[in-house]
Amino acid sequence: MKDKTFLDTNIFVYAIDSSGREKAKSQNARKVINEYVANMNGVISTQVMQEFFVVATCKITKKLSVDQALEYMRCISVLEIVYPDENMVFAAARKVKKYQMSFWDAMIIQSAQVSGCYFLLSEDLQHGTEVSGVKIINPLA
Hints:
Layout: E1 5-7, H1 9-16, H2 23-39, E2 42-45, H3 46-59, H4 66-76, E3 80-82, H5 86-99, H6 103-114, E4 119-121, E5 130-131, E6 134-137
Parallel strand pairs: 1-2, 1-4, 2-3, 4-6
Antiparallel strand pairs: 5-6
C-alpha cells in the first residue's frame, strides 16, 4: 500500500488561481495534485471540498463559476475523502486547547490523522511541525 498524504485546501486554490500573482505556486500546486491523483495516494476531506468551493467562487480575484467549481470538485473527488463524525469534532476541539490553533486547522489535522496520513501538505500551517503524528510540509515554499 502506498503512503497516503493529506492535501489542504490552499493547494487546490493555488492550482486554479489564474490571477498570475503566484504563478510559481500555481504551477507547483498543479504538479503536486497531479502526482497524488495519478498515484491514488492523496487524501482530502469534505471540509477541503467545502472551503475550496467558497474560496474558488467567492474569494479569489478571478472567481470560478459554480459549474466550474463543481467540475473541479468532481475531478478531485477521485482522491480518498474523509467524512468527519462527532468523535473527530471532539478530538479537534481538544487539539485547539492543546496546540492553540484554530478549530478548522485542528479539523484538517484530525482528518489527516484519522485517515492514516503521516504528511499534510499545506501552506497555512507551520512547515516542519509535527502535530499528533502528522508532519506538515509546505510544498509551495
